[in-house]
Specification:
about 25% strand, about 160 residues, two-stranded antiparallel sheet, globular, alpha/beta, 5-stranded mixed β-sheet, Glutaredoxin, 7 strands
């Protein structure tokens, strides 16, 4: 319980993990598909580390009554694949229209594309933001979140 309320939502807004170049009609550019796949493997390292750490600590979040939701501009299909590959048991939400990211002020531009900025929010049961973590460092982020939840529970 924190701020007199039990339960919380951890909203992780993350940069896209699987980058693909698309035409205006949404088709992947075939000539660059292999190159994009190699770039995806490199760019996913931050997402992968962060996701693995949250999965590792999932029981502690559940014990604290917290729900983890990851958000990025990646597609539902890429999230499904990523969750299966990494054995993730928490939800990753596809924000392909960048609405959730924009609502939380977590949009960045990269090469003319809108991406989700890597920020995290603890949201209480009333939907109010209890704490914001801008531009997080993925390696120790899960531990930082657990410590913050413990501090909020003391209040």
């Amino acid at each position: 319980m924190f701020n007199g309320v039990s339960g919380a939502t951890i909203l992780i807004i993350a940069q896209e993990c699987y980058r693909t170049r698309m035409t205006r009609t949404g088709r992947i550019i075939a000539d660059d598909a292999r190159k994009d796949q190699r770039q995806s493997a490199v760019s996913a390292s931050g997402c992968t580390i962060e996701a693995r750490n949250f999965q590792r600590d999932l029981a502690q979040y559940e014990k604290a009554g917290a729900v983890i939701l990851g958000v990025s501009v990646d597609t539902a299909e890429s999230h499904k694949s990523f969750c299966a590959k990494e054995g993730l048991n928490f939800k990753l939400l596809a924000d392909t229209e960048v609405k959730v990211s924009a609502a939380y002020g977590s949009v960045m531009e990269y090469n003319g594309n809108k991406l989700s900025a890597r920020n995290t929010f603890i949201i209480d049961q009333q939907g109010k933001i209890a704490k914001v973590f801008p531009a997080v460092k993925v390696a120790k982020h899960s531990e930082e979140m657990l410590a913050s939840l413990a501090e909020l529970q003391k209040k």
